[in-house]
Amino acid sequence: MTEQQRFVQQLWLDYVHQHPDIGALRLWPVDAPVECFTLVTVSQSPWSLASLLPDLERHGYRPLYRYALPDRGLLACLFAGREEGPRLNIVELQTTRLSRQPRDTLLKLVATGNAERTPLLGANRPWSMPDWDSYQQLHRAHPLAGWLAVMGPRVHHVAFDCHRLDRSLVELDQALQQHGLHAGQNEDLALPLSAMVEHRFYPTCSRRLAFALGDEHRVQLGGLLLLEKQASAGQQRTADVMLPPHSRCEIT
Question: What's the start-to-end Cα distance of the chain, in Å?
């Protein structure tokens, strides 16, 4: 197994651990190819996009396209592997886009993190668990701020390309509904998607988490994305055209 394959396996195992309802699905082969992992991180070192680059390169991934979404307070970068395999879409929450109080709350939380104790992406939350009030404050300020507070930098959702699953988006949507998964609203997505790609995003079952004061609450932790590329997208890979083209920046 190559370094890239080991890294992808680690991301997948962490994702299905957090989303057992997706891991239990048998609507496609267990070895069906993931089109893209979307991970969410924060703009503070050592978890910022720039800080993660050397680690991602060691795992066989290089930057392909960069995107700026100032209205969402996000930067994103699409990574391609040296070998055949899923794309990585890493979304960075810009803490400077948060208002002062939630920004201070998130920065204080992130400051408790220990990068040496945990992998930079996935497996464990590197900082302390917030209390429920802080989580609610962060979620109101930006849903991904609340998500990062309780999850840490890791996979938010995975995307499958319907064409590579040999089934239509309509067929898979009906099958998922029969398994209790229903498409959410566009605001449930971490990022807006391109008009060149039809999509459905399925928020996964909420999980009960223990917060800093010992109280437990249910929190929605991500989901599953199905993609179906329009004919107008040409021969490009689905993940490469899934984000709005007007938001693409030059890689420097």
Answer: 32
Q: How many CB atoms lie within 10 A of CB 44?
A: 16
**189 — pLDDT class (breaks 50, 70, 90):** confident
Tokens 């609610």, residue? 136
Nearest Cα residue to 105 out of 151, 127, 138: 138
Per domain, the residue ranges of the chain are: 3-249
Query: In the chain, how long is the greatest CA-to-CA distance?
Result: 53
Query: Model confidence at 251, in pLDDT bands (50, 70, 90)?
Result: low
CATH number given to 3-249: 3.10.180.50
Q: What is the pLDDT of residues 104-142, one digit of tens each?
A: 999 999 999 887 766 667 778 999 999 999 999 999 999
- Helix (H), strand (E) counts: the chain: 7, 10
